[in-house]
Design brief:
- The chain has 182 residues and is mainly alpha-helical.
- The chain has one domain (2-24, 70-179): Butyryl-CoA Dehydrogenase, subunit A, domain 3 (Up-down Bundle).
- The chain is built from seven helices and no strands.
- The termini are far apart.
- GO terms for molecular function: enzyme inhibitor activity; pectinesterase inhibitor activity.
- It comes from Manihot esculenta.
Length: 182
């Protein structure tokens, strides 16, 4: 089961890179921020998530492609940090349920690692090391998959399934946008 999830994550990543890696953005002549966000997000697998999250940040209105990539990264990282806090809240409510508590501990570790990876992406972006960016973000996505698998392994319903999926979508969108920088 775990190898299937990892395989699927790699497959999604390769699909993103295949569709985005050889494509260049066509920038609108009037530099309309809504069009620029739409154009940038059209290269992602999760257009609605991309467009709504980027539009939620006022800096997106004046951002270039590098700026949109950084905003998408910050949104992913912030969501990871919020998920660590949410896991802490769930853990405090899980008294007496050792299985749930153990899975939540695993998820807190996985998300902490994911957030560290996303923090390292900033340096990789600054160095224009897009291969390192891809590796670090793909690993962060795998950490959220591993969190979900910890529940599946003991046949326990995950209270984090929606968060894990959304985190992966945010990371996927960032990867697609950052691949346009090459």
């Amino acid at each position: 089961m775990a190898s299937l999830k990892i395989f699927n994550s790699v497959l999604v990543f390769l699909a993103i890179m295949g569709t985005c890696g050889s494509t260049r953005l066509q920038f609108p002549g009037d530099n309309n921020s809504e069009d620029f966000i739409s154009t940038s997000c059209s290269h992602t697998l999760y257009y609605q998530v991309c467009a709504s999250t980027l539009r939620s940040d006022p800096r997106s209105k004046t951002a270039d492609l590098q700026g949109l990539a950084r905003i998408a990264l910050n949104i992913s990282k912030s969501y990871g940090v919020a998920t660590v806090a949410h896991i802490g809240d769930l853990k405090s409510e899980a008294t007496g349920n050792e299985s749930l508590s153990s899975c939540l501990d695993e998820c807190r570790e996985e998300y902490s690692e994911a957030v560290e990876n996303l923090e390292d992406v900033v340096e990789a972006l600054n160095a224009r090391s897009l291969e390192n960016v891809k590796t670090l973000v793909s690993s962060a996505m795998t950490y959220s998959d591993t969190c979900e698998e910890s529940f599946e392994e003991i046949q326990l319903a995950s209270p984090l399934v929606d968060r894990n999926l959304y985190f992966s979508k945010l990371c996927s969108n960032f990867l697609a946008i950052s691949s346009l920088l090459s």
